[in-house]
Amino acid sequence: MKLLLFNLATDVDDPILGFTTRWIQALAKRVEFIHVITMRAGRVEVPENVRVYSVGKEKGYSEPRRAVEFYRYLFHILREDRIDACFSHMIPIFTVLAAPVLKVKRIPIMTWYAHPSLTWILKLAHHFSDRMVASVATAYPYRKDKLVVVGQGIDTDLFCPDGSLPEQPPMILCVGRLSPVKDHPTLIRAAALLRERWQNPFRVVILGGPAGPKDEPYVRSLHRLVEELNLQDIVSFHPPVPQSALPNWYRRCTVLVNMTPTGSGDKVVWEAMACGRPCLAANEGFRETMGEYSGVLLFPYGNSESLAERLLWLLCLSPDEAQRIGAYLRERVLAFHSLEQLATKLMVLFRCLRG
């Protein structure tokens, strides 16, 4: 089988989308060849049976020029090779641009989308796609008639326990871009409440950066809130790191906290679970993975009081109990969200679409 794959970013060092390289590597083991057209490229590490073409966002190309580059690569690939299926990952605009050409060629299209934003482009991509796929059903914001849930595709060899214990004093970790949807104020206010109720040292680490200039005012507001609550000695901000550096951060923390509301599949929670660490989340999409612990690990979105209560409960657990919870969560990630399972499920769907 030969695949055409559309990708938002192909860059091993990208702190948000670096994981897509491992997805490409996993699929490459199962197919003859993959042609990747990506919006932007950085450091590319792919097998010999993969070729990556960038439309040039990293070079500063304008949108019209990127569209020209997209069609130039698309027609070149279709002219030179026989494509069996197309997989579009988090870039519905590429689905829409390619669909008229691929439909004529009778090449099936499968589009991955896991984000709360519902746009007219996504609606068009849904219409043109033969299948839509997402990590969990709650992460897809449109009609479910074409949706297949396939899991998040966590590399559980990279994200795994190493036998180390969380550092002391306890670290409460939050990972992800600094954007209003991530609701960091809830964590900061919960830290202030926790300081009043737990008479032991702890720290909160917020690891990530703004997605762009539009998020800078939000970042400044977070620093002001930390100062207003006099939490400078507890809450610290750290810049984003490559995917390869994340497992060590997860292993050092006592708990990962994710405040994102239901409607997104924030993969950092599954990554931390795969490293054997308890996680607190406001997103109902994690209920299945959390299983028997979902009642204590999920908290109402925006509720700093509830988050503080759960943090206090977790910090008071014995090391053995915390380890049992972490081991259970890793097994659930292996069962529902491993990269090997994802690649296998995608291949089954490709073959079904191909008939």
Question: What structural keywords apply?
Answer:
seven-stranded parallel beta sheet, 355 residues, alpha/beta, 41% helix, globular, 13 helices
Structure description:
By secondary structure, this protein is α/β, with parallel strands linked by helices. Helix content is 41%, strand content 17%. It is built from 13 helices and 12 strands. The chain has a 7-stranded parallel beta sheet with strand order 3-2-1-4-5-6-7, sandwiched between helices. It has a 5-stranded parallel beta sheet with strand order 10-9-8-11-12, with helices on both faces. Strand 5 (109-112), helix 4 and strand 6 form a beta-alpha-beta unit. Helix 5 (184-197) packs across helix 11. The longest helix is centred in the N-terminal third of the chain and has 18 residues, at 63-80. The protein is globular, with a radius of gyration of 21 Å.
Produce a short descriptive summary.
This protein is an alpha/beta fold and 355 residues long. Helices cover 41% and strands 17% of the residues.
